[in-house]
Design brief:
It is a single chain. The protein has 439 residues and is an alpha/beta fold. The protein has 2 domains: 292 residues, Aspartate Aminotransferase, domain 2 (3-Layer(aba) Sandwich); 131 residues, Aspartate Aminotransferase, domain 1 (Alpha-Beta Complex), CATH 3.90.1150. 40% of the residues lie in helices and 13% in strands. The strands form 3 sheets. Strands 1-7-6-5-4-2-3 form a 7-stranded mixed beta sheet, sandwiched between helices. Strands 10-12-11 form a 3-stranded antiparallel beta sheet, covered by helices on one side. α7 links the parallel β4 and β5. It is globular and about 75 Å long. The chain binds pyridoxal-5'-phosphate. Pyridoxal-5'-phosphate binds next to α4. InterPro entries: Aminotrans_V_dom (IPR000192), GDC-P_C (IPR049316), GDC_P (IPR020581), PyrdxlP-dep_Trfase (IPR015424), PyrdxlP-dep_Trfase_major (IPR015421), PyrdxlP-dep_Trfase_small (IPR015422). Its EC number is 1.4.4.2. Keywords: Oxidoreductase, Pyridoxal phosphate. This is glycine dehydrogenase (aminomethyl-transferring).
Length: 439
């Protein structure tokens, strides 16, 4: 999770947005529709996927929507395929989404470098395989460098490639999954685009698709009707300042003139006969979209490019500083994250869970642990681009101290946390029977 800028919250709380009702006449909702339309266009530009829907309410929901689109697309071609291939390093939601859509999941073992094994994939991908679901950068924080070849293998077998782009930090402004050949991509606004993340939501998991899959996207789609007068106005204002650098030149510009805005009509279009239908009540989690849009416009094109660079730099900085103290089984450099194995520490009787708890005593949010499943005693370290050098150094110092303590007096790390109000809740009970109100 990255820093959630206050300005996002201010924008989402503007009365013009908060007092809107989803049943309000379309003429009175032009502002929000314009915002949503433009957000779609920015995501198109960032990802290289030709069309987007903002409806899915989370990453997992985007995956399910993607699976439904794949099934509808293949059925339209008269094909019924039964299998989805998923690497063993994938997020647990991937197989769950495929299974929920009625597919049989085939897990493919990663190679010694933690990447998709091309030879194995060739053997696995048959005429009964609907798609490969791949995460890139994968959950080990490694870039699947053979992605172009991987997409070719899938396409040659008549199948598709679904890319899990929940975390796009490393690629932001640097590389585009659409250019690599993937057919569907989901993005998590709550991971990459600075909307709040935690407490169970709400999130947003927009998905982008190729031209071939566009007809199957959920309805309603936000479309823009341009009148003849608008076209004249647009030609006149071509190159005008005030146009967002993130938007393509042929898109609706954000030029200041009110008259121009009124001449463009945004509509909610239900006229897509091949659409899989709605996946969400109304139009999705609009508040998250306002936040993401604000974030993107406040960064601008240059800022977005820096996100990718800094996220990768920060992760590699930590990786380099910690590699002497902890085992990092995969990769020599990483993208936005890397995965430590506390196998060595486990021999001293201290687990990944203990280390995560000890970090709470040092004032750090505990990292994701025991994931990905292919790393024993895994601790996933993902600093994001918004952490300062000082914070990174403080984190390094805490991690080194923990490693040294484990060597000399492991019980100090085992009996943690000491500084929090609640020590160690029953994790299963906390997840299964949460008490969400004060009694
Ligand atoms: C977080 C995540 C998901 C699931 O996203 P949710 O919004 O939590 O449903 C899927 N894949 C990857 C790689 C993730 O990191």
């Amino acid at each position: 999770m990255k820093y959630n800028p206050r300005i996002n919250e201010d924008a989402a709380r503007l009365e013009g947005f908060t007092k809107l009702h989803p049943y309000q006449p379309i003429e009175q909702c032009q502002g929000i529709l314009k915002l949503l339309y433009e957000l779609e266009q920015i995501l198109v530009n960032i990802s290289g996927m030709p069309a987007f829907t903002l409806q899915p309410a989370a990453g997992a929901h985007g995956e399910l929507t993607g699976m439904l689109i794949i099934r509808a697309y293949l059925e339209k071609k008269g094909e019924t395929r039964h299998k989805i291939i998923i690497p063993d390093s994938a997020h647990g939601t991937n197989p769950a989404s495929a299974a929920l859509c009625g597919y049989e999941v085939e897990s493919i073992q990663s190679n010694a470098n933690g990447l998709v094994d091309i030879e194995k994939l060739k053997a696995f991908f048959t005429r009964d395989t609907a798609a490969l679901m791949i995460t890139n950068p994968n959950t080990l924080g490694l870039f699947e460098k053979d992605i172009v070849e991987i997409c070719k293998i899938a396409h040659n077998a008549g199948g598709l490639v679904y890319c899990d782009g929940a975390n796009m930090n490393a690629l932001l402004g640097i590389a585009r999954p659409g250019d690599m050949g993937v057919d569907i991509l989901h993005l998590n606004l709550h991971k990459t685009f600075s909307t709040p993340h935690g407490g169970g939501g709400p999130g947003a998991g927009p998905i982008g698709v190729t031209e071939a899959l566009k007809p199957f996207l959920p309805v309603p789609r936000i479309d823009v009707l341009a009148t003849e007068r608008t076209e004249i106005a647009e030609r006149k204002s071509a190159g005008a300042s005030g146009r967002s650098p993130l938007l393509p030149h042929n898109s609706v510009s954000s030029v200041n003139s009110v008259a121009e805005v009124l001449r463009k009509k945004y509509i909610l279009n239900y006229d897509y006969p091949d659409s899989i239908g709605r996946v969400r009540a109304f139009y999705g989690h609009i508040g998250m979209m306002i936040r993401a849009y604000t974030y993107l416009l406040s960064l601008g094109k240059e800022g977005v490019c820096k996100v990718g660079e800094h996220a990768v730099l920060n992760a590699n900085y930590l990786r380099h500083k910690l590699k002497k103290y902890y085992d990092i089984p995969y990769g020599k450099t990483c993208m936005h994250e890397f995965v430590i194995s506390a196998k060595r520490q486990k021999q001293k009787g201290v687990s990944a869970l203990d280390i995560a708890k000890k970090l709470l005593d040092y004032g750090f949010h505990a990292p994701t642990i025991y994931f990905p499943l292919i790393v024993e005693e895994a601790l996933m370290i993902e600093p994001t681009e918004t952490e300062s050098r000082e914070t990174l150094d403080t984190f390094v110092a805490a991690m080194i101290r923990i490693a040294q303590d484990i060597e000399q007096r492991p019980e100090v790390v085992r009996n943690t946390p000491q500084t929090t109000l609640i020590g160690r809740p029953d994790e299963v009970k906390a997840a299964r029977e949460p008490k969400l109100k004060w009694e």
